[in-house]
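ugh finaly. both done.
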Amino acid sequence: MHLLLIQLGLILGLSRLLGGLFGRLRQPYVVGEMVAGILLGPSVFGAVAPAVHAGLFPEESLPALHTLSQAGLLLFMFLVGLELDPALLRGRMRAAVVTSLVSILAPFVLGVGLAFYLHPYLTDGAIPFAGFALFMGAAMSVTAFPVLSRILAERNLLRTRVGVVTVACAAVDDVSAWLILAGVVAFVQADGAGTLLLTLAGVGLFAVVLLRVVHPMLRHLEAYYHNRGRLTQEVLGVALLTLLGGAAVTEWLGVHALFGAFLVGTVMPKDRGFVRELRAKLEDVTVVLLLPLFFVYAGLHTEIGLLDGWTLWLDALLILLVAIIGKFGGSAVAARATGLSWRDASALGVLMNTRGLMELVILSIGLELGVIPPVLFAMMVLMALATTLMTTPVLGWIYPMRLIRQGTEDGTAAEVYTVLIPVSLPSSGRELLRVASVLAPPGPTRYYALHLVRARDQSLFSVRPEHPPHEVLQPLREAANLHDIEVRALTFVSRTLSEDLLATAEAKGADLIVMGWHKPVVSRSVLGGMTGEVMRAARADVVVYVARGFEAWQHILVPYHEGVHDRGALEMAQRIAARTGARLTVLYVTSLQGGGTASHPTPSPASRLSNTETPWIKTLEHDDPVEAAVEEARLGYDLIVVGADERWEMEPSPFSLRHERLATASTASLLIVRKNLTANQPDQRK
């Protein structure tokens, strides 16, 4: 037991470390875990420190790892089946079926053809050719549905045409590939034609029972879930018992327990809330703890050192080329024939070429059954790793983020003023739209509401935000409909929020970014964290709104001192006053000259005001402009509009105890304005 705990800790630690590292490189998390498995195997760890490796992973300890990894695979295949929704095929049946059929047949035929070349000298005739060839075809045909879905989500392609068709194709592909594998396993394990037919008939009968008997019964779980309002332990227990029963039946029939787990997952209720909660209960432990055990167990049987000659490395390269040609080529050509553009068809081909974890599952079955030798297992593992690694960079080349962010819309016309409203919480959407609508100048205006979903790398199946995107933007949409404002909603999955927000603003040609303020994780600063990064780098005017109440603005204060951001603040305040009828006061602070105060117009701020606006211009002589503004702000203002200028200490500074005093000392709502300096050369902040 002590050795098992050490093994678990080592596997978990290295898997999380490498998974996070590859995640930063914009690779699927599973790639890092696959690499961790290879590193802990005889190819690296065993070669560098054989004695230590033998002590940590002795042969007698492997059955325990194998048992735990198989439990993880059962849960994983159940989750894969759970994620398959027949609704994905509505309206896409022809494209999905045609593309999926070709994407399976092409690599299957090429894999069987390759078996004619590989079988004679890789197996020495010890493995029957028929099983070897069929297994090679099946292994070449698989697509990693969970990893593919994850990449689509992170590339923000799920709602595009190519994303929708790809998910539908992968769903059909997954079912078809596992049916083929079930047939191959039944063929390999059958004693003769009679046994094979009996096995296939038993599997067919079991599938019918699942669809006609078990599926209707499981609908009661969905009803019970809705009545209780949550997923109870009783419901979870019934789901797991059904999973175990299905796995036991297919194992008894001579196929494989994993196939039964997959079938049970496909017949589970597909209610969105039910699936989300059931997945949440099972996924984290499965993905974080149990699946890394499978990767390491597979890595312990991956001996890259068996490729001890250039001919074997050439064979490994040939396997990779055949895999890419069959899967990518077949999928892309078929997708083009169904009406997709070459760009979309190529993107679909790249995604369908992703093997990932599913390939390792099939290879492990083949190795366990003795259908493939260890040297071919190592070659195929390298192929699975390479095809998964290449997906993200090649997809980025075919489908740059610039095109994804622009979507199918035309570029923003020069005469249309564009406002981007990033929304992170449902509660902030309405107020941000109110601010944006009064800050837009007269004339045509285009509004974009943007919600960035932070990518959570620990999930292989989907991105689970704290608030679903449609719920986050719903209050803003309701307010827009109420006031007859057209707002275009954008939702992206993001690894780096500030970078993607800036890139979206650039792609949409934003003239103004209206942001709310929420307390940053690291910095307490109003202008720290992501907010500060956007304000410093945006090629647009940026305003940050700190709400201290939601009543109509009656009296607006603008601290002013001729800086470029002060002029921007005055411009924004004038727009608000013109739209709302609020009273505008401009505070102009001069250096102290003998004490006292003045309350009269002065030329400096007045020169910046339009002829139609006559706000109260209040001049104060004070040796501390910030304290003067704080004292004035306490006199009953409900909105302060201030430039992000050093004079008002609105520039983030870790060394200033008075930093952002105007923001923290005032009870009024605050609107911080930073003008786009890229159009002002040289910098005119002072």
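ok and the 2nd:
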Amino acid sequence: MRALLDRLSARLTALNVPHRLELVPHSPDQNHAALALMERIGRLDRPVVICCDWHLDPESSARLETLHRSGDARVLLVSHDYVHSTLPAVTYQQAGVGSDVARHCLAAGYRRLLFLAPFRSAWSDARAEGILSAARHAGVPVHIEPSVVAPNENSHYQDAANAQDQRLRRALERCLKAWPDADDEFTALIGCTDRVALAVRGIRPDLRVGLAGFDDDGTSARHEMTSARPPADELALRAGEFAARLWRGQTIPTLTELPWDLVVRGSTRRAAASTGVRAQPPTRRLAPSTHPSDVFPTCPPVVLIGWGEHAHLSVDTRAHGERLTRIVRTLTSALAREHLELALLPIDFTGGPEAIRERMERAARRVIRGGAKVVIIQDLQLDAAADGLLTAEHVVGNLDIVHCLCSSVPTEHPVVMHDQGAAGALAAAHCLRQHYRRLLFLAPFASRWSEERGLAARRALLLASAGLSTLLITPEVPELDHAGFANLDRDTRQKIVAQAFDTGCARLTEMVGQATPPAVIAANDDVALLLHAELTARGLRSGIDVGLVGFDDSPEAAVADLTSLVPPLDSMGTEVARIVIRLLAGGSVPRRTCLPWTIATRLSSVQAPPA
């Protein structure tokens, strides 16, 4: 951690940002020291607080999140490890590097993968998830050796050497027993760290498996072992940049995950031809097509594949399409300032699945034949064939791929997305500031993004109120998905929303009584406006009898005086442009960037403080 602090301090000095370092010692009374530091921070005037590799205890974490959500401090977490927090953070991409190492082993011709982690930690679990995802995508068998100690207890480094050795021996024995035919030259063993991988070589020098690890700590180079190198310098540079932006009162992404570099050495080099497995996708271009729509002889270096005509879709979906269009306008303007042109390839979603799949494949072929350098995929999940075409070009270095997403979708390419969880936490914090103590999160449909918003709102409420407030998610199990709900007529949707509201209020009253008016955080503005209409029909007033908050800040929300969370549309276009420019210049880019929402406070959620 000292090296990280030194790099960060040098970066802040170079940016002329005044700063002071305070260390919380690793000792039995570190929790007391952490809380004392929180108290000092709380007395300062909106300080910028950078927590470097600080594994907070629950009480300190709750205090820090409360300071951040209330606006009394601006917080940035900087960590080498996996970060699970709604606070802004810069960290390493752990799942992505696991996927990178696994794909390298598969490209080198290995037919089986073993991942060995004789202890548990959040970052080793994330690496295991990446390896598992890459192996399943390639259709090869993989074995993940589970923990032999308590979950999330990284005791490997604290134990005596003989205890470490015994734990690793037992884990390796279980691994080979579970997979007896794994000891051959077609198997790659990936250790969760370099130390684990090299210890395997010391315990069983007769193993013929390929070997790879993580951290590139110096010993891997001496033993000619393939290893992933963490972006330590980039972590400090990016943290310094974000700290300077916070100091100036600017917004920053809520999560930036930096990519690792893979250093390939002799431990995984082998002749792929002898395995019968293709080591790399073909480098040749696809044969020309005679289809007139495939004619795309040349194109700008940057192409965006996104939504096409959406006028025939539901009102809610059309509004989403308009938000995507605004992102494209900002992106186009940002690229134009660097004298870069953006070509648009819209996907028409009319017709059946086969027609849509054919259009996606055609768009992928046009991008490849047009000579594009970077393709941006905006809020789409491409079919397997189209994704395979683009990924093959990416692997051989002909194409860079960037995803621009409004919700979380698993991808191995750099992605810029809205932070749905942070938006939910911000909505809950707003309701607390307005003195609401009984909250409903109303989501009458199932979707990944609404679930992220609801769970984060509940967590933020628990942290900030220490259990003095209650948030109930209603209904517990929605019967419809978002598309099914959005395609219903307005009256039917309003009835579903009213029923969910009544059921939730009844349960809330059973739990905590009726001392104060409830506040409803609706899954989006469409649901909030439907509930607003229902409340008006019942003679109830939003902001007086019931607090009401939505998401997306639609024009209709402003007309109805509805408090709404504002998506980061302009900053998303700017951030995607920044990544594209760095890719074209040959620089490294974050694997995942999550952008924060803001809140437009209106009368629907402004409650007078209790007397």
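summary for the 2nd one i guess: The CA atoms of residues 314 and 489 lie 9 Å apart.
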